[in-house]
């Protein structure tokens, strides 16, 4: 992590290149036989492991083992009434857990393996432990090669479903790297299979097919339009106040405050970012701040500068309100499209202009900025367009 004055862009260097957006993500495509065998032994014994998927890392246990599933809840600190996703090897395997349907087949055929979770009626004979009292079950087939490797190795020992929420403590930032799992959960998870950085970076799209009209419960890498086109009927988004209340259960990914770093996250429209930069540049000029002031832990903004952002009219119109009063002299972290002015003394990561790249960087960036000891993380809110839906959703929850 660098300050702006060091002019470092970190991972952002590749962010705006279209080639980078579609480039394969580096990282282990396979794990070694020893790690794989250890994973199988631990899961067989009712243990919990860290597992890479293309969305985020999961905290996985045998979904047919009540004690193992209970361990997931304990390690995560997750409320017992919040159901888990069961990860299976194929649509055929999914049909043994859930009452399969033509719609399920259409979506599975188009998007599995991939970042899509289907909520379906649970078969009465299927293990209920991941469903947290619901008569439905959430199922997904991950496209990560390590996931496929593991499911293949588990078949001979009779494990056909892995319950796996994101491998973070309840309400905290989801992990997109093995290191995030280790730092977040530590000793509680002695084995984390390292599959490299997650290629999608935000949790799977969840579609509920259990109640008539298909409902999007959580936006992810697959758009509402793509889902509706595939099914030939409109998929309803459960993200307005009215639908959210109607759409029980209130599952964790759908709670207003979720995916949160330990320091406050504040979302700013692009105009507010520009207003903040202008204010910082003006104060830097007025105070004749030298380059040494740009070091981490130093910053030069005054109360007056912050007030200008807190809703005082200015020449260019009324700047949008900052929902927090920032303390002068304490650094902030920024995830914005443009760098702040020279000598701002703020930590800065460039926000990719492309939604898929931004999604891939999102949690890693929040993990890094969260570790800096700043007073707040200021994030430029991406545009309200369909491709940004999942990133905007996670940012809104991180800031709630
Ligand atoms: O990308 C992902 O989906 C990741 C990776 C590890 O697969 N998993 C994940 O799990 O995000 P978790 O536990 O953090 O989120 C599970 C979500 C819940 O928030 C809930 O919305 C939904 O799955 N869910 C699970 N079972 C459900 C059910 N029976 N009815 C409705 N929603 C359910
Ligand atoms: Mg989660």
Automatic annotation (TrEMBL):
Residues 1-11 have a biased composition (Polar residues). Pfam families: Sua5_C (PF03481), Sua5_yciO_yrdC (PF01300). It comes from the Bacteria. L-threonine binds at residues 55, 87, 140, 164, 204. Its main location: cytoplasm. Residues 1-21 are annotated as: Disordered. Its EC number is 2.7.7.87. GO terms for molecular function: ATP binding; double-stranded RNA binding; L-threonylcarbamoyladenylate synthase; tRNA binding. One of its GO terms (biological process) is regulation of translational fidelity. Residues 33-222 form the YrdC-like domain. GO terms for cellular component: cytoplasm. Keywords: ATP-binding, Cytoplasm, Nucleotide-binding, Nucleotidyltransferase, Transferase, tRNA processing. It is found in: Cytoplasm. Residues 12-21 have a biased composition (Low complexity). It catalyses: L-threonine + hydrogencarbonate + ATP = L-threonylcarbamoyladenylate + diphosphate + H2O. ATP binds at residues 78, 136, 166, 174, 218, 259. Belongs to the SUA5 family. Required for the formation of a threonylcarbamoyl group on adenosine at position 37 (t(6)A37) in tRNAs that read codons beginning with adenine. NCBIfam families: L-threonylcarbamoyladenylate synthase. This is Threonylcarbamoyl-AMP synthase. It comes from Lautropia dentalis.
